[in-house]
């Protein structure tokens, strides 16, 4: 399990308890930072708290957008393959239907042979 995924279960549990959605979850998170950390007031932090938050946001936004693009491309490719298979199947069925119902010129001997085969089949 990667470091990024280490806390997923805990955070998912916390997120699922917030019926107000992401806004309520963020409010809880930043309230926690205010009550239990020195994020907003630390003299040891060289960046402003807003910059730290935006830096983390942009990092994970990039990851999420790339994942979304990749997933969409995979879905599109799967759909394209499915549509191609369906199209080929229809074309084969149409070709088979056309093959069986086509008109072919035959000689008298061939016609007689076809009649005999047809009579024997019945």
TrEMBL record:
Protein's name according to its UniProt entry: NudC N-terminal domain-containing protein
Annotated Basic and acidic residues bias: 68-82, 89-102
Domain annotation NudC N-terminal: ranges: 6-44
Record region (Disordered): 68-122
């Amino acid at each position: 399990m990667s470091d990024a995924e280490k806390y997923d279960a805990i955070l998912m549990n916390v997120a699922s308890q917030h019926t107000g959605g992401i806004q309520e979850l963020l409010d809880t998170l930043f309230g926690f930072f205010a009550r239990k950390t020195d994020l907003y007031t630390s003299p040891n932090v060289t960046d402003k708290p807003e910059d730290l938050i935006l830096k983390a946001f942009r990092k994970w936004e990039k990851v999420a957008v790339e994942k979304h693009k990749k997933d969409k491309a995979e879905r599109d490719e799967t759909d394209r393959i499915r549509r191609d298979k369906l199209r080929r199947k229809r074309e084969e069925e149409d070709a088979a239907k056309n093959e069986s119902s086509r008109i072919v010129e035959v000689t008298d001997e061939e016609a007689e042979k076809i009649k005999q085969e047809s009579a024997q089949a019945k």
